[in-house]
Amino acid sequence: MGKFDHIPELTGASAFHAWKSQVILALGHEGAYNHVSDGLDPTDFAEFASTLPVPADVAAPTAAECTLILMWLKEDAVAKDIICHRLSPAVQQLIPQERSVTARDAWKLLHSHFNHIDLGSQHLIWEKILNLQMADAADAERYLGEHDALRHDLIRMGVAYSDSEAIFNLLKGLPCTGTWPAFKLVLQSSLSVAPVAAPASSSVSGISSISGLLGSGAATFKSILVCIAAEAHRLVLEASISPPVGSEFTNVARTSRQTTNVNPATGLRHTKNNPSG
Question: Does residue 71 carry a pLDDT above 70?
Fold first, then answer.
């Protein structure tokens, strides 16, 4: 994996914020962020914009001035390389190939094209979130994973998607069968009031411990995610060790038949050769 391959590829407006945040970190790590920043305060070293040094006498620059210019050009090339490293082929074509194009030029150009709200993509993501539904405990990994990924997509696009909204949508898609309605009720109660006691039913015994955590105000999207995953794991494990449906009836019926074939007085079984036992 290359040094900057962790940066998501910039393919359009929907990916711009995720791409930008990682590029800024990479530029900062290489000490080149000042080549794209636009700060004017020279005391703000993090944001103060770095520009190409200009010799006092353009016609006859000194050796020191030439050294500074060459160093700046080298640093700017590093910044531009980081910016252009993870662009899709279509986006790459937007950047002029002239060597005179600086990192700041490329940065501003990409901003002008992609730094806007992509309402179409946002609508699709919202639609996916609202339609997500968990089938059963075995489906929890897919359901929770999709919710988490879509939430990250919205945040990367600059959408204000609070934990309370995300939790509401997460709980809305839980199954309406089995013990899930009771589990959902405990979660909702714990989120809205002080810690509550879980229902006495043994079917929800695995969720009583979450009330204190959630009721204490420590609930986040991630903590609810963990609670649901833990409950799903418990149900899957419980199902794997439970006897198949009908097995108890079968065992009782088999035992009953065996009992009726025995003479209670002698303890011997009724057979063809010994009908009386």
Answer: yes
Tokens representing 216 are 């204490």
Instruction: Work out the average pLDDT over 47-59.
Output: 92
Classify 44 in phi/psi space as left (phi over 0), alpha (psi -120 to 50) or beta.
Answer: beta
Query: Distance between CA atoms of 140 and 231, rounded to whole angstroms?
Result: 9
Stretch (H or E) spanning 267 = none
Query: Is 143 in the same domain as 227?
Result: yes
DSSP result, 107-154: HHHHHHHH-S--HHHHHHHHHHHHH----SGGGHHHHHHHHHHHHHHH
Q: How many domains does the chain divide into? A: 2
- Identify the band that residue 250 occupies on the pLDDT scale cut at 50, 70 and 90: very low
Residue 80 placed within a domain = yes
pLDDT at 121: 77
Neighbours of 191 (CB within 10 A): 16
**pLDDT above 70: percentage of residues in the chain:** 76
pTM, full prediction: 0.48
Amino acid of residue 58: V
Kindly state whether residue 126 falls inside one of the protein's structural domains. Answer: yes
Whole-angstrom distance, CA of residue 165 vs CA of residue 158:
15
Residue 269, φ and ψ in degrees, nearest 5: -80, 150
Q: Which domain holds residue 108?
A: 13-115
* 236: CB partners within 8 A, 6+ apart: 137, 138
Q: Is the pLDDT of residue 199 over 90?
A: no
